[in-house]
Amino acid sequence: MRTEPLRVLFLCTHNSARSILAEALLNHLGAGRFRAFSAGSSPRAHQQPNPLALRVLQGAGIATTGLRSKSWDEFAGPGAPAVDLVITVCDNAAGEQCPFWPGAPATAHWSYPDPSEVQGSEEQKLEAFRRTMHAIRTRVQLLLAVPPERLARETLQREARALAGH
């Protein structure tokens, strides 16, 4: 039985929307069983989390304190926090050559459309972020429902990849 939280790194290109939503949701819902992080393959200079992502999280009662956009390099070098599972949440990041992750974590890809690309009114944009947050929440809840013994290193990748179909 695991005594420390399962550490999950969510990746996207800019680390401003989908990966931020996933990090906040898993930390909120994971109740100490999980510790989530997020990063981007190529965040822009001075990149910040998308304000609409922060608004929908706050509207759902999920803390946003400490969320920040960062490069995946923070998780690939010496002294980086070890992770057990790396999940890409955008198709661009999934197709990129990832760095070497210390400890050879399990990997999976959960595809979501980019809500920041939605055109329209402020309310239409917010609704796109809400839909994305709810889609991510569904998979996160399914991950949380996986019995702890099936989250062992040998089965973790299979379990996380199976959730991509939900």
Automatic annotation (TrEMBL):
Residues 6-146 form the Phosphotyrosine protein phosphatase I domain. The keyword Disulfide bond does not apply. It comes from the Bacteria. Keywords: Arsenical resistance. InterPro entries: Ptyr_pPase, Ptyr_pPase_sf. GO terms for biological process: response to arsenic-containing substance. CDD domains: LMWP_ArsC (cd16345). The keyword Hydrolase does not apply. PANTHER family: ARSENATE REDUCTASE (PTHR43428:SF1). This is Arsenate reductase ArsC. It comes from Ramlibacter montanisoli.
